[in-house]
Design a protein that fits this description.
The protein contains 24 helices and 32 strands. Strand 6 and strand 7 form a beta hairpin. It is α+β, with helices and mostly antiparallel strands. Residues 1-41 have low confidence and may be disordered. The chain is globular. Among the domains are: 7-208, Glutaredoxin (3-Layer(aba) Sandwich), CATH 3.40.30; 651-773, Immunoglobulin-like (Sandwich). The chain is 41% helix and 16% strand.
Length: 774
């Protein structure tokens, strides 16, 4: 998301104040002037030889762009010009807007070419540069996002940053031409001042990237505490009404590493609230507008709280991780909607995101000829024209259209109506019934202009897809998914890995393997190969994971445990290290998980994993929530690499049963007491609806026993506003037997069928046993 900067931010560069603690730096300039747009002219610059769709998009700008490299840096030093560094990616909406409104403008390009050396970077090609300069932007402005635009000294030290700059002055907001002129004037008149500011920024960056800490004692490695601390923080931030977590400004992102951490907590500790938070978010995304209900797949994020209106990009890394998460959630709850979503996401990857010769593409755009989401939007009239009035009424019995902000009378986004959800089971049936209608609408939609696709095949992102498909394929018994993952894994090994040198390339584009692999390429692909090994039983995948892990040990992990993410660029202004997990596991986190798992059978990997975790322990201890993936992996594998036993995942883990027998004057009686964990409930008997499973007590030695169930409490979940009858806490159920039968009952356990549920999910049913004591 772009940032806007007011005129007051620029009043005087000389009065700039740098907060060395790392909060923000305010820039103040003076003078305002508007430079009018002129028609763009045909032009070709150095980016025409790039292997990046994003850079190629700018290859015909009149800006004299350079790719990152020695040529541009040397020219800046030789001519003593500041560098304008612009970092983005091919499916970034505001990057497209900037390309049209700024970089295609010859007048603006002339200023850039005259006063600056302009460098374009694809963040997916150079994640190391992206991470370093995003941190600089955050220090300078207190905000992030793309495009990320910075001005650097010829020595590559940042001194000014922002996001999208408008092409003209707008009230108190300076346009890009004004910004260019003011920075140029101050560079010419006060270069020492600017260099001094840049040096201070660089000092702050160096402190953030401090690598001088010593490895912690193994005694300071406390994965259980880290997990609890992170869990409590996330649960405290969750939206209990609409699900998910606020991503800032009302936005909500899938946040796969956070969901994985909460699922890990549930598996290890049985925390009901963790599972409920996951259920709320996965269900909200499944029914919301962030989910493409016609074509499949998940959009990048929701622009508002209810998950109804998305930002329309589709990223491989989101969809790849969500496949495995929905499958994991299904394995716990057996909820059909979760399985449906895994099938949906796998189908999306198998379609537009699968490359012809193997591997998966990077992303799909949000922008269609300058209009965001144009392909995906519908009016009610358009849908009625396609389906006919009768079928359209059926469609709108389950679905609705949510208009875009500020366009209440315009087309809208398809989503499932929240008031139409009775239960996940019934929703599954209703969605399936309307499949032919969705197919008709998709056929029409496919005739519209389609979003552009970034056809890079990035190794780390493909690793996420391979792991997600292989894991989900095993859980859901979908062998074709495992086969698809295997084809992609083989494609990358044959085309991105050089067995002679032992080096992995970062990505492939138009058949060419490009760039040195980063830590996350090695580590995430290694984890994917381990997952393939588990899914197929084929040892070749484990052998390949070991090769990649060995490369990590020798190239990316220093003797003291310091982990670097890149070994390819001497021009990095700070050490290339991970500072946190983001939308995907960091290379550091994935490397730990890979080494820890291989360490089960090889002490070399176990030792490397322990050194890595010891080195990172202080950082995790201070902020475990910022290391969601590493915190979850550490809790799962600890120091030994042996996966810890998971808590039971069915209803039996949350309900305990005891039985007490007594002989009365005219009959025998057994009192069954059920103790239900906090946060869970059982359906009463009788259940409030046919699709709900009641609690049932059976006395095998006395089929004619009379069982009396207590009245339940009224519970009002989202799917039943009128309320359902449930048991919570402790409940007593009486079974009356003919006199003289109690002695036999003592030796034959009673059977108690239960299904434990939270406000959002129901676990698989379980049959408990209890022997009656006298």
């Amino acid at each position: 998301m772009p940032s806007r900067m007011s005129r007051s931010h620029y009043r005087s560069l000389l009065s700039l104040v740098l907060l060395l603690a790392g909060a923000a730096i305010a820039f103040l300039f003076f003078t305002v002037r508007v430079i009018a747009d002129t028609a763009p002219e045909a032009h070709t610059n150095r980016l025409i030889n790039s292997a990046s769709p994003y850079l190629l998009e700018h290859a015909h700008n009149p800006v004299d762009w350079y790719p990152w490299g020695e040529e541009a840096i040397a020219k800046a030093k030789k001519e003593n010009k500041p560098i304008f560094l612009s970092i983005g990616y091919s499916t970034c909406y505001w990057c497209h807007v900037a390309e049209r409104t700024i970089y295609s403008n010859p007048a603006i390009a002339a200023l850039m070419n005259q006063w600056f050396i302009s460098i374009k970077v694809d963040r997916e090609e150079r994640p190391d540069l992206d991470a370093t300069f995003m941190r600089a932007r955050q220090l300078l402005t207190g905000s992030g996002g793309w495009p990320n635009n910075l001005f650097l000294t010829p020595d590559l030290n940042p001194f000014f940053a922002g996001s999208y700059f408008p092409p003209e002055d707008q009230g108190d907001t300076n346009g890009f031409p004004t910004i260019l002129e003011l920075i140029h004037e101050d560079w010419e008149k006060n270069p020492a001042k600017i260099r001094g500011i840049a040096d201070q920024v660089q000092a702050s960056l160096s402190r953030v990237h401090d690598t001088g800490s010593k490895p912690a004692s193994v005694l300071k490695i406390m994965p259980t505490d880290w997990l609890a601390k992170a869990r409590d923080q996330f649960l405290g931030q969750r939206d209990k009404v609409y699900g998910g977590f606020d991503g800032g400004g009302g936005t909500k992102f899938p946040q796969a590493p956070v969901l994985n951490l909460l699922l890990t907590d549930y598996r290890l500790n049985g925390t009901a609230e963790s599972l409920q938070a996951v259920a709320e978010m996965l269900n909200a995304m499944a029914i919301g507008g962030i989910h493409d209900h016609l074509g499949g797949g998940m959009h990048r994020y929701s622009t508002e709280r209810t998950w109804s209106v998305p930002h329309f990009e589709k990223m491989l890394y989101d969809n790849a991780q969500l496949i495995g998460l929905y499958a994991d959630y299904y394995a716990i709850t057996r909820q059909p909607l979760a399985r449906d979503m895994a099938v949906d996401l796998a189908g999306y990857l198998a379609g537009r995101m699968t490359a012809l010769h193997g591997g998966f593409y990077t992303a799909e755009d949000a922008d269609i000829e300058g209009k965001e989401g144009e392909t995906y939007l519908w009016t009610r009239t358009e849908i009625t024209d396609v389906l006919g009035p009768t079928e359209a009424d059926r469609f709108f019995g389950l679905y609705e259209l949510t208009p875009l902000p500020n366009e209440q009378n315009g087309p809208g986004v398809v989503r499932i109506r929240r008031d139409q959800i009775a239960s996940e089971e019934s929703l599954h049936d209703r969605v399936a019934e309307l499949a032919p209608l969705r197919t008709k609408l998709l056929e029409v939609r496919d005739r519209r202009l389609q979003p552009a696709r970034d056809d890079k095949i990035v190794v780390a992102l493909n690793g996420l897809a391979i792991a997600g498909l292989a894991r989900a394929g095993k859980i859901l018994s979908e062998p074709q998914w495992i086969a698809s993952a295997g084809r992609a894994g083989e494609f990358l090994w044959q085309n991105a890995f050089d067995e002679t040198t032992g080096r992995l390339r970062h990505h492939l584009f138009e058949g060419e393997a490009i760039g040195e692999g980063f830590l996350d390429d090695y580590a995430v692909l290694g984890l994917a190969y381990l997952t393939l090994g588990e899914a197929t039983g084929e040892p070749v995948w484990v052998s390949r994971a070991q090769v990649l892990a060995s490369a990590i040990r020798t190239r990316f992990i220093k003797p003291d445990g310091l982990v670097v993410t890149s070994v390819a660029d001497a021009n990095l202004v700070t050490p290339a290290i991970d500072l946190e997990d983001h939308d995907t596991p960091s290379g550091t986190s994935a490397a730990y998980a890979l080494l820890a798992q291989l360490g089960k059978t090889d002490a070399r990997y176990a030792e490397a994993a322990t050194r890595l975790l010891a080195r990172m322990s202080d950082k995790i201890q201070s902020a475990p929530a910022t290391w969601a993936s590493l915190t979850a992996y550490a809790a799962l594998y600890g120091q030994s690499g042996e996966a810890k036993p998971e808590a039971a995942l069915d209803s039996a883990s949350h309900v305990k049963a005891t039985a007490q027998g007594a002989s009365l004057a005219d009959h025998d009686e057994i009192l069954v007491t059920l103790t239900i964990d906090p946060g869970y409930h059982l359906n009463a008997n009788p259940a409030s609806a046919d699709y709900l499973m009641p609690t049932v007590v059976t006395v095998p030695i006395a089929p004619d026993a009379k069982v009396t169930y207590p009245a339940g409490q009224v519970f009002k979940p989202k799917f039943s506003p009128e309320g359902i009858s449930v048991y919570e806490g402790s409940v007593a159920i009486r079974a009356e037997l003919p006199r003289g039968r109690l002695a036999s009952a003592v030796n034959t356990p009673l059977l108690i069928k239960v299904q434990a549920c939270t406000a959002q999910i129901c676990l698989p049913p379980a049959t408990l046993t209890a022997s009656a004591s006298q």
